[in-house]
Amino acid sequence: MLLNTYEARNLLCNLSFNGATSQADTHAFRGDLVLEEGDIADDSGRRMPPKSVVKQAVLLASGDKLLMAAGILVELNLLPLFIQHYRGDLAPGIRVLFYVENLGKALRVDLDGVDIILLPHPDGGAVWNTLMDDLRLDKDDFKGQSAEDKVITVYQTLLDFQPKLDSPSYEEALGHTIAPRRAARGPV
Question: Range of 62's domain?
């Protein structure tokens, strides 16, 4: 299974779950997906923490192909890393939706033949909840489903999700980046 291969290669971290769905040969994952591995830390080959990740990633894989990818990119300039690192694993017609912390406008970008929906995410909220709101799903849509099967429900809804967005080139999309506003968090 593709996601198990990622796990063995330490490309998955901060796992919520990584497991089989009720559909044959289909697995789901929630956690962080590594875009850039950390430097090698010692002679044993252990690595430092990843340099960049898709935060709170939601992935669905069937066989050896990714059907869906969603999550948070801290910066829009990380998008090519996703395509470069995982290009061979992307199913034709993959559904990709990334929330981007430094994006000022919702866009739809085609990068190397992959259609990607990019939505601003300045508040840093939980992807799962934001995704549910954007796809207009509620708790009743998931009644009685395992965590893994809930990802299938999101995928099926995402197949029909066609927001009317500007479709600039990736280079033009970089012109819509902003300085992210971060609220102070933690003890006062």
Answer: 2-176
